[in-house]
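> example.struct
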C-alpha cells in the first residue's frame, strides 16, 4: 500500500487528464473531464474527484461508456432543448447542456435543457457555478441507478438523486451554490469511508435485510443507502427520480426502460427578463451578507451560506495542496499500471 499524497491542482488535473486519454478519450475532452474531477477535489468534494477514475474505467469495461463519444443537441424548441450524451462522459454532456441553457435563457428569460444517454455527470454544483458566473439563476437535478431504499423500505429503488441550485450575487458577493444528494450521503463519500476502513455515521445505510448498519461494506454486500431527513428527503428524492428519469428520456431508474447513467434536468433563469438585473444582484448580495453577519450559535465561529465552505476549502487547497489518501492513490497507481501511464512520484 502506498502512502498518502498531496498534489497541486495542476498535478491532480494532469493525473486525471493522462488517465482519461489512456482510456481512449480525445485530449480536449479528457481535459474537460479532468477539470471537473480535479476541481471537485480542490473544493473538498473528494467523492467526485480523482477517486472516480477507476470507476470510469469500469464503465468502459462494462460497456456503459464510449470514451471518444461527443454529446450533441438533438432537439431544440423555443426555450427547451435535449442533449444526447451518446454514452460518453457525463461532464461533456453537462457542459453542452449548460452552454445551451445559458444561450436560451438569455434569449427567452428561462430555459429547460435535459441530457440523456450520459455517464456520471460529476458534481452538479459545478454547472450551477458556471451559470451563476454568467448571471443566471439555476436549478438542476438528475436521477441515477438504484442505490437508495424508499423511506420505510429495504430494497434499492432510488438513485442518490442529487439536487443543485445557484443564485448569482452582485457587489463582489459570492454566488449561493446549493448541491447535495437526497441520499443521507453521496455514494462516493461511502467509497471514501470504505477505503479508509472506517464506520459511517448511524442513519446513513442499512444492510440487505433492512437493518441499520454503520459498516460501509454492508452497502456493497447488497444493502442500501437511506434518504436524508427521513420522509422529507424521500419526498424530494421521489420528485427528482421521477422527473429526472421521465423528463430526460433516460427513464426512471427502477423501471425496465431505464437507460444506465444520469438523466439530467437543468433550468436556467435570466433575472433581467423579470426584474431589474442590477437591483436583483444587489438584493441577493445584501441579503447574503446579512445572513453571514447574523450572530453565530455558541461554539460556531460564523454563519456560512451554501458554497462558502467550498470557497474556503479551495483557497486552502490552492495554498497547501490536495490530499489523496494512500488507499485512493493505490487505486490510481494500479489503474496507471494497467494503462501504462506514469504518475508523478
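> example.seq
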Amino acid at each position: 500500500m502506498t502512502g498518502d499524497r498531496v498534489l497541486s491542482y495542476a498535478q491532480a488535473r494532469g493525473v486525471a487528464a493522462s488517465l482519461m486519454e489512456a482510456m481512449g478519450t480525445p485530449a480536449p475532452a479528457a481535459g474537460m473531464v479532468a477539470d471537473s474531477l480535479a476541481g471537485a477535489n480542490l473544493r473538498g468534494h473528494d467523492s467526485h474527484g480523482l477517486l472516480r477514475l477507476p470507476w470510469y474505467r469500469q464503465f468502459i469495461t462494462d460497456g456503459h461508456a464510449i470514451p471518444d463519444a461527443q454529446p450533441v443537441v438533438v432537439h431544440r424548441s423555443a426555450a427547451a432543448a435535449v442533449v444526447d450524451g451518446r454514452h460518453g462522459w457525463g461532464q461533456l454532456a453537462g457542459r453542452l447542456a449548460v452552454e445551451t441553457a445559458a444561450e436560451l435563457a438569455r434569449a427567452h428569460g428561462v430555459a429547460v435543457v435535459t441530457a440523456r444517454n450520459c455517464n456520471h455527470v460529476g458534481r452538479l454544483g459545478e454547472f450551477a457555478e458556471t451559470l451563476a458566473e454568467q448571471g443566471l439563476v439555476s436549478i438542476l437535478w438528475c436521477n441515477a441507478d438504484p442505490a437508495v431504499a424508499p423511506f420505510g423500505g429495504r430494497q434499492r429503488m432510488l438513485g442518490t438523486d442529487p439536487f443543485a441550485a445557484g443564485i448569482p450575487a452582485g457587489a463582489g458577493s459570492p454566488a449561493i451554490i446549493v448541491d447535495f444528494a437526497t441520499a443521507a450521503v453521496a455514494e462516493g463519500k461511502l467509497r471514501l469511508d470504505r477505503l479508509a476502513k472506517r464506520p459511517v455515521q448511524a442513519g446513513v445505510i442499512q444492510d440487505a435485510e433492512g437493518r441499520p448498519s454503520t459498516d460501509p461494506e454492508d452497502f456493497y454486500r447488497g444493502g442500501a443507502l437511506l434518504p436524508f431527513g427521513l420522509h422529507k428527503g424521500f419526498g424530494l428524492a421521489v420528485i427528482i427520480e421521477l422527473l429526472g428519469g421521465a423528463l430526460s428520456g433516460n427513464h426512471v431508474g427502477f423501471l425496465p426502460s431505464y437507460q444506465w447513467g444520469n438523466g439530467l434536468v437543468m433550468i436556467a433563469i435570466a433575472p433581467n427578463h423579470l426584474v431589474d438585473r442590477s437591483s436583483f444582484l444587489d438584493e441577493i448580495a445584501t441579503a447574503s451578507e446579512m445572513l453571514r453577519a447574523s450572530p453565530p450559535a455558541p461554539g460556531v465561529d460564523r454563519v456560512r451560506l451554501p458554497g462558502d465552505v467550498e470557497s474556503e476549502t479551495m483557497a486552502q487547497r490552492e495554498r497547501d495542496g490536495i490530499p489523496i489518501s494512500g488507499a485512493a492513490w493505490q487505486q490510481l497507481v494500479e489503474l496507471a499500471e494497467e494503462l501504462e501511464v506514469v504518475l508523478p512520484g
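> remarks
Residues 90-108 form the longest helix (19 residues).
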